[in-house]
Fold each of these.
Amino acid sequence: MQTTVAHVEKVMEVARSSSAAARSRLAASWRRSAEKHGLDPGEKREPERVDGIHLRERLGAMEKFITVASPRLDNLFSLVGQSGCAVLLTDSEGIVLDQRFSEADASTFEGWGMCTGADWSEEREGTNGIGTCLTEQRRVIIHREEHFFARNTAMSCIDAPIYGAEGQIVGALDVSSARVDQTEGFNQLIGAQVAQTARAIEEANFRAAFNKTRIVVAESDDAQAATLLAIDNHDLVVGATREARRIFGLDSAGALIPRPATDILGREDGPTGFEKAERAVVIRALARADGNVSQASRQLGIARATLYRRMKRLGLDKI
């Protein structure tokens, strides 16, 4: 009881301080929880859950995403499950859509509300791994007493956001621990694996959404972000992940207006316009024919002499 009272007093003292919120992301989240969402850190109610109908609607809307994510959740759980951790996948509003935990830990996590259908948004649960990750759209670790509600301080939550094929945030990946001896150092190790798994889900989901295009992997200064471009058979970029959009200055979310890949990737040397397109067609035909001009001309439906003239004009007669 004394521990609960001390936590509540500490949270409210920090939440009332505007200067603390300016210095600390955690303090800012505590302040949002108290001031914006009107929550009381001493509340003892259980986490809210959506009813069966609304849960089925959410699961239906995210069916393809969950299918892509499922084997990667299994892999993550195989790494952390035996150390008293649960793996949770939520939608963009913090509703748990899928879960993994061992039978030995089931009663603990279900008692805490860490299960399918539970609402872990910051609006409902205050500062917590899932809700704060989604609110701030960044990787977070909320360790024990960093939670807003005193009733949540027995757990450690490690989270990473997952972005959809159009750059929008679609959910959070969470690992929560029931261990009383969980250390912050161990949280950091788990956090790296959570971030890697979130990236793998994002990449797989993007590839599934653009399965009829070529996928180009671009370089990024963020090793834990998926940086992919989808290019159609007209060499137009028709899709990009969140990180790719940032790097190439594209709209941060939403369907992309198709743009030539060369414009985005910055390869502007040599011929331009129709000449560049014609050059690419000839090069591809020669490659398919292993350099045999006669065979390439038949593929293109033009005379061999015509192809020789075009190759000369395009600067391809020396290759």
Amino acid sequence: MTCIRSVVAGCGSYLPERVVTNADLAKFVDTTDEWIVSRSGIHQRHLAAEGELTSDLGLAAAQAALDNAGLTVDDIDLIVMATTTPDDTFPATATKIQMKLGMHHGAAFDIQAVCSGFVYAMSVADNFIKTGQSKGALVIGAETFSRLLDWEDRTTCVLFGDGAGAVVLKPEEGTGELSDRGMLTAHLHSDGRYRDKLYVDGGPSSTQTVGHVRMIGKDVFRHAVVNIADVITEALDATGYTIDDIDWFVPHQANRRILEGTAKRIGLPLEKVVMTVGQHGNTSAASVPLALDTALKDGRIKSGDLVLLEAMGGGFTWASALLRW
């Protein structure tokens, strides 16, 4: 029995030019390099320049993904963008990128699931492709998260950075077997009871301000390790694979301790975990595609590999996806 799979045809990423090291932060925040590294594994982060917008970051990553795929906007008819930091309240930042790409057809929209946003967006685009509603999709995760930070709150401002990543999904006929290339399964979850553990204290309807990130770190850590392990198990159970079958684990780059705790809990060797958090910090919805692009460019991920994606964000939201490269 044949079926349509969503195959990753191209991948791209972008990081702003400005690099801020832990030593740079220590000049105006009560912190040290040792304190930051010991708690998060982060050494530096990239910050968007004055006037550099989320759409600018997303556009650069999107164009890189299209170039990597050898495709143009004529080959896609859908843009799904994950972001917590849109250029404007409306219209959707995806439509701005659509315009800048010179794409005047199809549909473009944003989704908001904070750090889980990219995996959510991959699932949304996958369903459009599987049902024949899209001939090709551009999935983007882009953030200027630094603009949500309280630079006097060392528990949050040291953790986050700006960046963007994108993939191009194209339909490909499969056999329906797990040996097919493409998206094999995806699992999305949320639980609004935990909103106060990680949130922004502002918004158009509540305070008419942008607000700042607020977090109870120890609670987020505890829930993250459990929820991530559970949603990974869910993906494995849905396919019949075991953790030993996974070639590469590409998680949301929130905190090295969370990644190490998750790997230990699910029995996955750290050598199979793609970690880029040290180089760019937590870039929210951009972190999974940034890590994915890094592992593709350095040759770790190869055709035929089984790749596991995972993320957890404020809300709480959490998600996983399993792909055959």
